[in-house]
Amino acid sequence: MATTADSASDQLNPRAAGRSGAWKIKLLYDGDCPLCLREVNFLRQKDNGRGLVAFTDIADDSYSPEANGGVDFATAMGRIHAVLPDGTVIKNVEVFRQVYAALGIGWMYAPTGWPVIGGLVDWVYGIWADWRLAVTGRPSLKTILAERDARQQADCGDRCQV
Q1: Residue 155's pLDDT band (boundaries 50, 70, 90)?
Q2: Which domain covers residue 18, as residue numbers?
Q3: d(CA 3, CA 59)
């Protein structure tokens, strides 16, 4: 599992993501997805340590929905989500539009907000999101959820007994 040193701290302290102040958007990404990691690495490079984007790895077993707009792991795995500083949750292509805008490269996604093009891009993203796991050689979401649940049950031991 790909974990980042800042994923847990970002969840607990929204200001932990940036040295120069509060983040503008918190991106919830799948750290076990190779294509997602490529995008996150690109975005980290564009952020250049400014802390404009807080990167939160949902694949980290310490991921907390309560610290991330209430977005549970299964929901986050289905479609990309982000949380704004006021707690608003956004999803799908709107996430990319806002992340890119926060980094000053919004022009790259600007056409996705235009009529016709925007609808087409949203439709294509929906297809991608539905097939992302299979395309990247990963198990089904059902299997991933069962494996995660088993790990969490094993990790909590007697504390989870009712």
Answers
A1: confident
A2: 7-160
A3: 7
